């Protein structure tokens, strides 16, 4: 990427300027997790959505120009680095970096069933990873709707008002053991004692192992 004001070049992975007048500057990350459409509608009923028929352009929305890219047994297209052999290049991972510490979880280690919770930590910082089924891979099939279900991921601080909560999956939602409050995939408390509370989002990346391990070579890896 480049900006039109200074024509500095930026890496899309971490928002860092690597060439030009702003070299060394880093953009502020804003958490923007990928969500399945029903979850988005439920959590944000007033969200703005692209009207495919009102863009003024004829585009093949819903199609994937990189069919077959998301294949766990393949190699990374155009990747010229040295692959970290702790996992396959195209292994899907959830990566989190906090205060110089980095950890990645394989998709298989955090997913399964209708929903799943992973209580963990990155360095000294506790986190909770919420996973919910229902989202298709956008990079596998020619038509996105035909991609395998890779689910939606949210990463949050489990600390609310100074108290660290312990989470577990409960059907298609989540519940903490301390207050038995029900939470959704976006980290909102939707019923129970803490209704109206929202967990603090922790910036994460849903990405492939070759990319995460290249930018975070000292990362821990959880799962195969």
- SSE string, helices as H and strands as E: EEHEEHEEEEEEEEEEHE
Cα-to-Cα separation, first versus last residue: 33 Å
Overall outline: globular
Name the poorly predicted regions. none
Q: What gyration radius follows from the Cα positions, in whole Å?
A: 19 Å
How many separate helices?
Answer: 3
Could you describe the 3D structure shown?
It is built from 3 helices and 15 strands. The chain is mainly beta and 224 residues long. A 4-stranded mixed β-sheet has the order 14-3-4-15. It is globular and about 50 Å long. 28% of the residues are buried. The mean pLDDT is 94.
Keywords:
mainly beta, about 220 residues, 3 helices, four-stranded mixed beta sheet, four-stranded antiparallel beta sheet, 15 strands, globular
Please give a quick description of this structure.
With 224 residues, the chain is mostly beta strands.
Write the layout of secondary structure elements.
Blueprint: E1 9-10, E2 17-19, H1 37-43, E3 92-98, E4 101-106, H2 107-110, E5 115-122, E6 125-132, E7 152-156, E8 159-160, E9 163-164, E10 167-170, E11 173-176, E12 182-183, E13 189-191, E14 205-208, H3 209-215, E15 220-222
Parallel strand pairs: 4-15
Antiparallel strand pairs: 1-2, 3-4, 3-14, 5-6, 6-7, 8-9, 10-11, 11-12, 12-13
């Amino acid at each position: 990427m480049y900006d039109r004001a200074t024509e500095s070049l930026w890496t899309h992975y971490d928002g860092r300027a690597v060439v030009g007048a702003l070299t060394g500057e880093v953009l502020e990350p804003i958490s923007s997790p990928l969500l399945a459409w029903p979850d988005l509608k439920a959590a944000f009923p007033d969200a703005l959505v692209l009207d495919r028929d009102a863009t003024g352009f004829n585009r093949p929305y819903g199609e994937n120009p990189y069919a077959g890219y998301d294949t766990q047994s393949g190699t990374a297209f155009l990747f010229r680095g040295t692959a970290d052999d702790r996992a396959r290049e195209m292994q899907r991972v959830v990566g989190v970096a906090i205060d110089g510490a980095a950890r990645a979880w394989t998709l298989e280690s955090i997913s399964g069933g209708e929903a799943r919770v992973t209580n963990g930590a990155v360095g000294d910082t506790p986190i909770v990873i919420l996973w919910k089924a229902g989202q298709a891979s956008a990079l596998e099939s020619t038509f996105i709707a035909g991609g395998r279900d890779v689910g939606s991921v949210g990463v949050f601080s489990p600390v609310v008002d100074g108290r660290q909560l312990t989470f577990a999956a409960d059907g298609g939602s989540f519940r903490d053991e301390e207050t038995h409050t029900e939470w959704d995939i976006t980290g909102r408390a939707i019923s129970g004692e803490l209704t109206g509370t929202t967990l603090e989002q922790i910036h994460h990346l849903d990405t492939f192992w070759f990319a995460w391990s290249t930018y975070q070579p000292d990362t821990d890896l959880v799962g195969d």
